[in-house]
Amino acid sequence: MLFHDCPACDTGRTSRRQFLTGLGAAGAAAMLPAPAVRAQGAKTLIDTHSHFFPPSYLQTQKEWEAKRNIPPNTRMYAWTPARLIELMDKDGIRTSVMSLASTPGLWFDTGAEEAGKIVRMCHDFQADMRRDYPGRFGIFAPLSMMNVDATLKEIEYAFDTIKADGINLQTNYGDKWLGDATYKPVLEELNRRKAVVYVHPLVAACCGRLSVGTHPAVIEVPHDTTRTVTSLLLSGSFARYRDIKWIFSHAGGTIPMMAGRIDAFYGQNPRAKEFAPDGIMNEMARLHYDTANATSAPAMAALLKLVPVSQITYGTDYPYFLLDQNKQLQKLGLSAADIQAIESGNATRLIPRLKAA
Q1: % of the chain at pLDDT higher than 90
Q2: 8 A C-beta contact, residue 328 and residue 357
Q3: Is the pLDDT assigned to residue 18 strictly greater than 50?
Q4: What whole-number distance in Å separates Cα of residue 251 and Cα of residue 198?
Q5: What is the DSSP string of 99-118?
Q6: What pLDDT, on the 0 to 100 scale, is given for residue 109?
Q7: Helix 297-306 vs helix 10-26: crossing angle, to nearest 10
Q8: Which distant-in-sequence residues (6+ apart) come within 8 Å of 5 by Cβ?
Q9: What phi and psi, each to the nearest 5 degrees, are found at residue 139?
């Protein structure tokens, strides 16, 4: 977003070898032959990284921005479910799984009670979208995380009332990342429910001025995914909550490039078996990562060195980026089976309901 998602199996290793060999032979991913293109007009893709904005949320966002002289993001304010459906039809997307991720998320400096009201409004809006457009939308339900007891009730409502497909978390909440001990009861409940948990980065409150003249999203957003993954790793959360199925945005941010460095520092730690029982690189390879704004040849090469194809889902980050990023996947020399797995198969394995959507 502009201001702000298991050891490798033999199939995964083969796919990576094919991919990297193809890159070396061609010299550039764009020169590689693409697998067969889907039938014209067919809607087969599943987008696990698409954002939604209820009108009342946008009004609150607008007021918050005005107080801080923040220029409005026109793409956010132009968003509507009908417009998204039109673009999904155009670009072959059958189902978009909706999440909320924007600065300042759900807080707006109004406190836990008001954040809880915004969460409930978002949950109900998501449920209405899924009802009004059958088969076209899934739900990653956001949580406020400001008050643990309230958040546990939000989880109950999300799964038991609106029947969410998973949970939508931010990489950070103020000055805490997801491995912080404050969130232990929340992660315990999500683990008990065997939840799919989709994580979207924000620019951390500490770090907006570290962007060396770029928009804060360019550098700090991917770095914040790496911060929260490392927080979850070193806190033992990945090892402790094995039944949570994690999806991290933008090919894991900078994790594919940083995983080896993290392993070099902590892999020989006397406590390593406690937080990474199968080794740090294998902990990273158990996670899932989406492709949103990360389908360039270098980004995908790094990701496919870290994880098997089975751990990658298709994502777009709409409305901040276009829906047709699968065009880049088609140029990477992947097999037709691997393309199909990324475009929809891996998502339906994580969320079986989407098979019938």
Answers
A1: 68
A2: no
A3: no
A4: 12
A5: E---TTTT-TTS-HHHHHHH
A6: 61
A7: 150
A8: 48, 49, 99, 198, 199, 200, 247, 248, 249, 250, 289, 290, 292, 313, 315
A9: -130, 115
172-173/288-290 β-pairing: unpaired
The rounded distance, in Å, linking the Cα atoms of 315 and 323 is 8
Query: 3-class SS at 292?
Result: coil
DSSP structure class, residue 318: B
- Taking each helix axis from N to C terminus, what angle separates 216-234 and 255-266, rounded to the nearest 10 degrees? 40
SS3 content of the chain, % helix, strand, coil (to 5): 50, 10, 35
Which residue has 């997801």 as its token pair?
178
Radius of gyration of the chain (CA): 19
Instruction: Write out the two tokens for 2.
Output: 């502009």
Task: Calculate the CA 312 to chain-centre distance.
Answer: 10
Q: What is the mean pLDDT of residues 11-23?
A: 42
Q: What is the mean pLDDT of residues 183-190?
A: 98
Which tokens is 231 given?
A: 């927080």
Q: What does DSSP assign to residue 172?
A: E
Per-residue model confidence (pLDDT) at position 217 = 82
Q: Does residue 347 contact residue 45 with C-beta atoms inside 8 Å?
A: no
Extract the tokens encoding 174. 């103020």
Sheet holding 196-200, edge to edge: 45-51, 93-99, 137-142, 166-170, 196-200, 245-248, 288-290, 312-313
Residue holding tokens 């009332």? 161
**Alpha-carbon span 250 to 294, nearest angstrom:** 6
Answer whether residue 316 shows pLDDT above 80: yes
> Mean pLDDT, the chain, as a whole number?
86
**Band of residue 24 on the pLDDT scale cut at 50, 70, 90:** very low
**pTM (2 d.p.):** 0.86
State which amino acid sits at residue 87. L
What pLDDT digit, counting tens, does each position of 133-155 carry? Answer: 999 999 999 999 988 999 999 99
* pLDDT beyond 60 at 36: no
Helix (H/G/I), strand (E/B), else coil: 226: helix
